[in-house]
Amino acid sequence: MRGLKTYLAPYLMISPFYILFIVFGLFPILFSLYLAFHSWDGLGPMEFVGLRNFRNLLTDDPDFWKSVSNTFIIWFFSTLPQLFLALVVAFLLNAAFVRFKDFYRAVYFLPNITSIVAVAIIFGSFFGSQFGLINGLLQVIGLPRIEWINDPFWVKVAVSLMVIWRWTGYNAIIYLAGLQSIPHDLYEAATIDGASRKQQFFSITLPLLKPIILFTVILSTIGGMQLFTEPLILVGNTGGATKGGLTLVLYLYNQAFGNQLFGYASAIAWMLFLIIGIFSFLNWKFVSRGEGI
């Protein structure tokens, strides 16, 4: 009893975090898993359906597979250019001849803290099919307009450009921190040994930066699989006329709050969790093999 009184105060001090986590974190996760095996419209009684939601999802729902395909294509279009540009920006910010580095870091990081809704609305004015700024510029130079919203390919490009603009600076700051952590003695020794800039990059910089690059790949993969706000604001909750912008999370939202199929939406959420888990596992295996673990 005396021991309980001794530790009561510290436990009470940390209890708000655990209470909030249980109420707003753990309980929704467990409830969504329970809900995935039921049919429920949000108001009436729940009906246990077993694996029917998952079976329908995998065998009878072409929109689900379309959303999976769209999500992967947008991830591919956005992640590779984004990380490449971030690496280039990081190298420029780390260069000795660049002045006002703190200012540039703030400028590149600014898109990440800007309201994504505001960003999506602004980009919507750029990519408008009829009166968009980009189409206006294309007509000025004599090129045909692009159906950004109505074309299934170009809508993916538009969403990908939004993602690239928002996250390039964020990843560049991470890469910059990695570059600054590499000891300069290694470069000095390589220079004395006659190594060129190219050899230093591939023999020193890239191997030491590899864990950070893989870290950003994993983060970009998780974020890309959960893409929601950008396509929602740009093309609406249906993914556009051709459903070219229909992502997994947007489809989940549509089923839950558009069709009131909360059980089915929960099944989509757990399929999304499975996809992200598989990607994370593959990246972890790749990192472990690369480090010889």
UniProtKB/TrEMBL annotation:
Record-stated family: Belongs to the binding-protein-dependent transport system permease family.
Protein name from the UniProt record: ABC transporter permease subunit
Membrane topology label: Multi-pass membrane protein
Keywords: Cell membrane, Membrane, Transmembrane, Transmembrane helix, Transport
Residue ranges annotated for the ABC transmembrane type-1 domain, each copy included: 68-283
SUPFAM superfamilies referenced in this protein's UniProt entry, alphabetically: MetI-like
Major place of residence: membrane
Compartments, record wording: Cell membrane
PROSITE patterns: ABC_TM1
Transmembrane regions: 12-37, 72-97, 109-133, 153-177, 208-228, 261-284
